[in-house]
Design brief:
The chain is of the alpha+beta class. It contains 11 helices and 6 strands. It folds into 2 domains: 137 residues, 2-Layer Sandwich (Beta Polymerase, domain 2); 111 residues. Helix 1 runs antiparallel to helix 3, helix 6 packs antiparallel against helix 7 and helix 6 runs antiparallel to helix 11.
Length: 268
């Protein structure tokens, strides 16, 4: 059987996750899928492992409690990959329809051991990646579970994220002023403008290379350092950002917002 990733340790973690979740949910379980970098194809040993689990209905309190225990056990496995899982449990009635975007779901944050309610994964971007490129761990083809996402809708969501998140960062820059988020902002803003330009989801690596070509040498060093700073996020999130790099990061966010605000869906 074809393995979902090239990393045997990660495949073992994913197999354990799916086995335990299926056992806990029974008939409520529909399928499990990788999205994010492992779906779009630009991944490496430092990538997050983004997943969604499709479920037939909302989870009961008892099911949530059992899943909390499962995620704590998965986190405690010997593999470092077990600490880099991130994903949400999507009821089918929410996953299929883009109108259900934003509804809070049970969500496992990167580096966390427990589920919380969050709309983090409930976006058109995630639906599009799952439908078009999702890696099936168990269950039917993800294309049968998600309605097609119109390109204009995906672009509109991307534009809104660029501008709304950017204004939040610029209004409260101290909140994001650690080494992890400094690089995270650079790479995500490069990726989002690239996605907006081409009209389809892409990877941080593709966005970084595209932004270096588009904006030239003035920004290449910042982008390269952001990519090189991806390892050890649990450490970097507790360390202050380099002041000069963070100041330039805020300028990069302003640049991407300006590019976005003057662009149209077909002429960016």
């Amino acid at each position: 059987m074809k393995q979902p990733t090239p990393y045997s340790d990660l495949n073992a973690v994913l197999a354990e996750l799916v086995l335990r979740v299926q056992g806990a949910l029974g008939d409520t379980f529909v399928g499990a899928y990788l999205q994010g970098s492992f779906a779009v194809g630009d991944f490496d040993q430092h990538s997050d492992v983004d997943f969604i689990i499709a479920i037939g209905d909302e989870l009961s309190d008892a099911q949530v409690a059992e899943l909390q225990t499962i995620h704590r056990r998965i986190y405690s496995l010997g593999s470092e990959w077990a600490k880099h899982l991130e994903g949400s449990y999507f009821p089918l009635a929410v996953l299929r329809y883009r109108e259900q975007r934003g509804t809070p779901l049970w969500y496992l944050d990167h580096g966390s051991q427990s589920l919380v309610r969050s709309n983090h994964c409930n976006t058109l971007l995630v639906r599009c990646v799952v439908r078009e490129m999702g890696v099936t761990l168990a269950g039917p083809s993800p294309a049968t579970l998600v309605d097609p996402i119109p390109v204009d809708d995906l672009r509109e969501e991307t534009r809104a994220t660029i501008c709304d998140w950017g204004r939040e960062v610029l209004d409260q820059p101290e909140v994001w002023a650690n080494r992890f988020y400094q690089g995270y902002l650079v790479l995500n803003y490069a990726r989002m403008l690239h996605d907006l330009t081409v009209g389809r989801p892409g990877s941080k690596r593709a966005g970084a290379e595209w932004a270096k070509a588009r904006f030239g040498p003035a920004w290449a060093d910042l982008i390269d350092r952001a990519w090189g700073g991806r390892p050890n996020p649990a450490v970097s999130v507790r360390e202050p950002a380099d002041p000069a790099d963070y100041a330039r990061t805020l300028e990069f966010v302003r640049l991407i917002i300006r590019e976005t605000e003057r662009a149209t869906p077909r002429r960016i």
